[in-house]
Input
Amino acid sequence: MRLSEKHVKALRAMDELDFEGALEILSSLKARGPSGWPARNDLALCRFALGDADAALAELDRALEMDPGNGFLKINRFYVEETDKVRSAPAPRPETRILETRGAGVASPLVTVIMPTYNRCDFTAESVESVLAQTMDDWELLIVNDGGDRRVEEVLEKYLADPRVRYVYAEHGGLGSARNVAISAGRGRYAAQLDDDDVFYPDHLATLAGFMQANPEAKLAYTDANRAFQRKDGGEWRTVRTKVPYSVDFDRREMRHQSYVPVISVMYERERAAEIGYYNEHILRSEDWEFFLRFSARYDLHHLPRVTCEQRERADRSQMTRSFDVPYNYYRNMVGYLHGFFPLTGARMLGAGSSGDKLLRAMSGLVRDDKDNFFARRLELRKLLVEPYYAIFYALSKRLAEEGERDASREALRASVCVKPSELKLWFKLFNG
Output
């Protein structure tokens, strides 16, 4: 099936987030019979991006009547329905979650350091110490216990003697909720973020606050962060190597594909966070990426290429960003749909020619009997934009193997082989994995 010039033009408009223009073009295309599903699929995605989820689902249902086994349509329908639940959920009211506050705090600090914590008594002290060691003094540290183990208060007791340290016990709501509580309760002009197992280097706050004050047009700035890989040695965690995974100047288009801004490295005007609607509390992973996408839709993000902080990556995956038992890719995909970044467009798939046909067959086979959308939740759809097509299934296979889902892992690997049978490493993995 050949891709029409009009459909190519519509895809370009979608890539530029011009959904009204794409909708006008797609509405003029004939979308009849089994070969008409790509146009109807993309028409549905445009309608969803423009806020009409019911019309989008109706379009996808009509397309599925044309081609009932189509895996692309099934996955798009799943994510349109799931994302609409998030999009239509009530706005956060973080001030209502606060149950108890300790520490008087300072009246008007320049910076509020936001530190959420949840059942992690072993790591918090080092993070607090890194704030106390800052070269600038004009800050407050707001520690929010997200309804977790209150034994952390024993660890924090000695720090609460410092008037700059405040502690909030809040209803459990997740990482985004805890951050929102701190944004709402904070008193600083600027907000910086520190997870309870990471550390600031001594010049972190001074570097960012100095830039923000010297450049009042800047509403958010970020530095670079070391990633420290740690292993346990003699009962203590020790860093075995470090690297800086990202040092990238702000690019709004590149932000669509990934978050290259470590959450620990940012500072922003606190009131701007409330203005854009806080963190989305219904996204349990990649909520920082979604927050930065909304922030960057209104303001540029400013990169300072200087390493000023450190994120920990532990061998047992116990760091805060890996401690949630949720399908990681599910939330990353949801962020894409929320912001109109759709990798599963019929135009993009058709434009790939025979490779696209193989991809469609493999996808349809994988999700044919997909109970509870098991595969759909774990597929890393962004790989369709930046990787060879087979990589989406190969990456899925590796992740499923890590989760102990051996049969599902082999099913994903078979799909990878179907898309690129000439890749010998896939066959080797299939027969020896």
Summary: The first strand starts at residue 98 and ends at 102.
